[in-house]
Amino acid sequence: MKLYFIIAAIVASLGVLGGTAYFAYDYGKESEKARTAAQIEEYRDNQKLLIDKLAKAQAHERIIVKTKIKTIRKVIDDCAASPIHSTILEQLRN
């Protein structure tokens, strides 16, 4: 009878040890998932900020280009509207 109690105590001890090891592993795995998820979320937030900054820079660049195009068109119109001096016309014709 005493032998049964010893075997039962050994089996119970191994069960407790195995259960503790399993739950410790599971806790470590879940905490690692949570840490990784937080890092991924932080990375995505940083990427979103960079994308927003890029979109603003592109919009600003478009405004600059449109302004330059308007200036060039105005200068071309002004240039075409102004009379050409006769000596320059003679040089161009020859």
Measured between the Cα atoms of the first and last residue, the distance is: 128 Å
Count of distinct strands: 0
Annotation field: number of helices: 2
Total of domains = 1
* Secondary structure category: mainly alpha
Give the ordered list of helices and strands.
HH
Mean pLDDT: 87
Helical fraction: over 70%
The biggest beta sheet is recorded as:
none
- Report the uncertain regions: none
**What is the 3D shape?**
rod-shaped
Q: What's the alpha carbon Rg, rounded to whole Å?
A: 40 Å
Percent range for β-strand residues: under 5%
Provide key terms for this protein.
mainly alpha, 94 residues
Descriptive notes:
This protein starts with a helix and ends with a helix. With 94 residues, it is an all-alpha fold. It has one domain (2-93). Helix content is 94%, strand content 0%. It has helices at 2-81, 86-93.
Produce a short descriptive summary.
With 94 residues, the protein is an all-alpha fold. The chain contains 2 helices and no strands.
Topology:
Blueprint: H1 2-81, H2 86-93
